[in-house]
Amino acid sequence: MWRGTHEPIPLEVEVSASDDDVGGAPERDWEEVQSGPEFTELRRRLRVFVFPLTAFFITWYLLYVLMATYAPDFMAAPVFGNVNVGLVFGLLQFVTTFVITGLYARYANRRLDPIADKLRHELEETK
After folding, report:
1. Do the beta carbons of residue 115 and residue 37 sit within 8 Å?
2. How much is the average pLDDT of 30-41?
3. Alpha-carbon torsion 61, 52, 117, 39, what sign?
4. Which of 25, 33, 58, 123 stands 20 to 30 A from 79 (CA)?
């Protein structure tokens, strides 16, 4: 933090370990959980879902950008009335975002949250 005179204000933080600390050594608990098979499975399940959908969406978005850049005539082609292909592609970006969000929420509720809840419960019991 600084005073108006450009001199630093000394910041003193007192850290003390006492018998009143809750939870013991959280670093050790975290290391045990992180190396356990349930956490490994949780990370695997997350990656199996997140990486393919991220790759899909980035590809889909780049297709939109490249089409707008290199095929402006195609993107300007009317679909109906004043609505053209570029507008439809742009709106579908939003639709895709909402669909992916809904799929992730459903996937997390069914496949990730039960394992995460179990790990949290086990950690809370050991404290």
Report:
1. no
2. 87
3. negative
4. 58
Q: How many CB atoms lie within 10 A of CB 12?
A: 5
pLDDT tens across 21-35, in order?
555 555 657 788 888
Contact 85, 74 (CB under 8 A): yes
Token pair listed for 29: 């608990």
89-119: b or e for each residue (b if 16 or more CB lie within 10 Å)? beeeeeebeeebeeeeeebeeeebeebeeeb
Task: Quote the pTM value.
Answer: 0.71
Rounded distance, CA 86 to CA 70, Å?
Answer: 12
